[in-house]
Write a structure and sequence with these properties.
Blueprint lengths: L8 E8 L7 E7 L4 H11 L8 E5 L2 E3 L28 E6 L5 E11 L9 E6 L10 H10 L2 H13 L7 H11 L6 H10 L6 H6 L6
Antiparallel strand pairs: 1-2, 1-6, 2-7, 3-4, 3-5, 5-6
Helix pairs in contact: 3-4
């Protein structure tokens, strides 16, 4: 979306609850971004796969994209925009994802500004650490895994696999170890490339696009 066509830009800070050091993103979105589009933006921002149910809670009301077996929402997430919700600076709302692991993302409106010429939106301008593995058991389980997969232990395990020439047989384990090794190295340009390349819609092709932000 071209910045000049947007009525205003909303700067949001998204923080995953229960994790320290924090995993967070600062994103700029147009005020006419729909609830459905914001859902996909957050999926890309944290490298998640959109395989689980979700919902927003804004002004004590739930919003989201309905899926079979999931919560029913009274409003269509594809038509309700952030502008419609009348969000104000410093206002907070909640995004919940994967009700088994119960990922809770706290969102705060930091600024509402005018679009910059030639700037495209949405865009992530800041952030720390790659998103957690979405089906690892939740925030507490993630913290425990972080202790298990310390940088030293990961390096040792990877070296052992390489020395024993077991790359093909243990490809899955190598991928998991790579995730923990690169946890603190967020690739912001690649994240924004995903945001710019992927249509923010419930197109099946898009759902495949967001499966991984490579780490």
């Amino acid at each position: 979306m071209n910045g000049s066509s947007a009525p205003s830009i909303i700067q949001l800070k998204a923080v995953i609850s229960g994790i320290s050091p924090m995993i967070w993103r600062r994103v700029l979105v147009t005020a006419d971004t729909t609830i459905a589009q914001l859902h996909y933006i957050l999926q890309i921002a944290f490298g998640w796969t959109d395989e689980y149910l979700h919902r927003f809670v804004i002004h004590a009301k739930p919003y989201g994209i309905h899926h079979i077996g999931g919560e029913w929402f009274s409003d269509d997430a594809n038509t309700v925009t952030l502008l419609d919700l009348g969000l104000r600076v410093r206002e907070r709302f909640l995004y919940e994802y994967n009700f088994f692991d119960n990922w809770q993302v706290q969102l705060r409106v930091e600024q509402i500004t005018k679009p910059k010429p030639k700037q495209t939106y949405p865009i992530c301008i800041e952030g720390k650490r790659n998103g957690p593995i979405e089906d690892c058991g939740g925030a507490w389980a993630f913290q425990e895994l972080r202790q298990e997969f310390s940088e030293a232990s990961v390096a040792y395990r990877m070296a052992k696999i390489l020395v024993n020439d077991e790359i093909t047989q243990r490809r899955g384990e190598l991928r998991q170890l790579s995730y923990w090794l690169l946890l603190d190295r967020l690739d912001l340009p690649k994240l924004n490339q995903r945001l710019q390349q992927s249509p923010l819609s419930e197109d099946p092709a898009f759902r495949e696009e967001i499966i991984f932000i490579d780490t």
